[in-house]
Amino acid sequence: DQQVKQNSPSLSVQEGRISILNCDYTNSMFDYFLWYKKYPAEGPTFLISISSIKDKNEDGRFTVFLNKSAKHLSLHIVPSQPGDSAVYFCAASGDFGNEKLTFGTGTRLTIIP
Amino acid sequence: GAGVSQSPSNKVTEKGKDVELRCDPISGHTALYWYRQSLGQGLEFLIYFQGNSAPDKSGLPSDRFSAERTGGSVSTLTIQRTQQEDSAVYLCASSLASSGGAANTQYFGPGTRLTVL
After folding, report:
1. What is the pLDDT of residue B56?
2. Which of A32, A42, A103 sits opposite B101 (nearest CB)?
3. Dist. CA B35–CA B52, nearest whole Å
4. Do the Cβ atoms of A82 and A111 come closer than 8 Å?
5. How many inter-chain contacts (A to B, CB under 8 Å) are there?
6. CB–CB of A103 and B42 under 8 A?
7. Would you call B25 an interface residue with chain A, using a CB distance cutoff of 8 Å?
């Protein structure tokens, strides 16, 4: 039962354009969402997060949007840079008493110079 | 500042042997998590520590897997009688607290790549 889904395994975007990564979830108890970026042979690096009481959070080139009614969130990167090429994981946590993260399967983003 | 560290970075072992994986969390982080990522899969939760106790072990795949944490700091994940399906990258993360929201932002170590031959 995949509670967090990233339906696009890969995405290619031209340098300077906007990258949009999508994530859907099924568990309405999730109340905190995070995006992690992962390079090969490294652990995931925290990128940006959003609480369920908000619908948008922005940090520099990165913006996360949350649509609670659709149980959908997205990560926008603009402008995309070659260093953004990595695997991006969406993760969610809820008030389950332990805040463990449930991860999607990741989207490999390739920025084309 | 020091992040989460894990050792060893790589471990190759023979089927049936026991292995120990170590995690040093960020200083002051009370919550510690173990995850694993098998080939082509997402990250899978294994176990969570709050201080030295493990309120949630629900992700441990079998009784061959155990973990402990001492002094509210270092944690060790032990896999007994390893099997080939245990081959994966084992990741440790820590967070300031487990009370939800931003305090739960988890910071990951580089992982230990375990290969069972």
Report:
1. 85
2. A32
3. 17
4. yes
5. 74
6. yes
7. no
**Chain B residues touching A97 at Cβ < 8 A:** 55-56
A53-71 in b/e burial notation, b at 16+ Cβ within 10 A?
eeeeeeeeebbbbbeeeeb
Distance (Å, whole) CA A86 – CA B81: 34
Residue A51 tokens read as 């609480």
CA-based nearest residue to A99, from A22, A24, A33, A20: A33
**pLDDT tens sequence across A36-81:** 999 988 899 999 999 999 999 999 999 999 999 999 999 999 999 9
Tokens of B5: 């560290």
C-alpha–C-alpha distance, residues B99 and A32, integer Å = 11
Would you call the peptide bond into B8 cis, given omega within 30 degrees of 0 as the criterion? yes
Residue type at position A24: D
How many Å lie between the alpha carbon of B81 and the closest alpha carbon of chain A? Answer: 26
- Closest-CA residue of B relative to A107 is B42
